[in-house]
């Protein structure tokens, strides 16, 4: 290791000293070598990834910044002269570089469906946010979502069933993730009745209020840091967060016979 490498290592050790004491040097070493891809901008998600000290973060989100995004993404500057004409990924990239200069932050243009397997193999973790159900072409997701509702544990969070109804509605109507509005609620409730009948599930397991909440506000939180650092429980789970009561729930959705 030459002098420059030693100096860089000393800087990183000093910067991440608190994290090293919290979860250990090995976990931090894994984080410092990780390359992460995030599709769909969520401010808190990418902020935590950058602050954790990964090697690089690549952002994909070609949506042009709009004024309403201020309320859901604190990384977007309030000055229209700054955000005008730029994509969400570009604006978030500019802000994130200031959060942690040690992390390489890049912007990749293009739609998720246009990249091949070789592109995704460049990353240790891929986080996909705000995409349609068909776009979630992932082995475990398919296996988990194929489990009949009546075979799931009785104490499973009702948010899981509500989420499945919303995703099925988006798929049927050709909506992008997050586009379902209050005006669609009658159709969502009708689909709930249909799905509950097909799955032999009592409708009380999918309260209307839960569907109303998902239509008006949706939040995603991936345990990215836990995955990279290999600290904590395995990722064989779904995480649900109810913004109304500020409670998070982790559920194991899997085929018990597999």
UniProtKB/TrEMBL annotation:
SUPFAM superfamilies: Activating enzymes of the ubiquitin-like proteins
Domain (THIF-type NAD/FAD binding fold): residue spans on this chain: 16-137
Domain of life (superkingdom): Eukaryota
GO cellular component terms, semicolon-separated: cytoplasm; SUMO activating enzyme complex
GO MF annotation: an example: SUMO activating enzyme activity
Any coiled-coil regions, as ranges: none
Gene3D superfamilies: NAD(P)-binding Rossmann-like Domain (3.40.50.720)
Biological process per Gene Ontology, one example term: protein sumoylation
Annotated protein name in UniProt: THIF-type NAD/FAD binding fold domain-containing protein
Lineage, top ranks: Eukaryota, Viridiplantae, Streptophyta, Embryophyta, Tracheophyta
């Amino acid at each position: 290791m030459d002098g420059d490498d030693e100096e860089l290592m000393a800087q990183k050790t000093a910067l991440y000293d608190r994290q090293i004491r919290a979860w250990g040097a090995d976990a931090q070493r894994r984080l410092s070598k990780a390359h992460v891809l995030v599709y769909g901008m969520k401010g808190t998600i990418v902020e935590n990834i950058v602050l954790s000290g990964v090697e690089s973060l690549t952002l994909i989100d070609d949506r042009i910044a709009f004024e309403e995004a201020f309320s859901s993404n604190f990384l977007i500057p309030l000055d229209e002269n700054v955000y005008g004409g730029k994509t969400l990924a570009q604006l978030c990239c500019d802000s994130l570089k200031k959060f942690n200069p040690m992390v390489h932050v890049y912007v990749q243009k293009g739609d998720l469906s246009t990249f091949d397997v070789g592109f995704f193999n460049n990353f240790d973790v891929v986080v996909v946010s705000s995409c349609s159900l068909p776009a979630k072409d992932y082995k475990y997701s398919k296996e988990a979502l194929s489990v009949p509702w009546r075979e799931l544990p009785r104490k499973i969070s009702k948010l899981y069933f509500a989420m499945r109804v919303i995703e099925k509605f988006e798929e049927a109507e050709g909506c992008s993730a997050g586009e379902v509005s209050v005006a669609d609620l009658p159709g969502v409730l009708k689909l709930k009745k249909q799905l509950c009948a097909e799955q032999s599930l009592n409708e009380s397991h999918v309260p209307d209020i839960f569907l109303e909440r998902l239509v008006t506000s949706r939040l995603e939180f991936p345990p990215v840091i836990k995955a990279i650092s290999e600290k904590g429980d395995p990722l064989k789970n779904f995480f649900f967060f109810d913004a109304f009561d500020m409670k998070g729930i982790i559920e194991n959705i899997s085929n018990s016979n597999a």
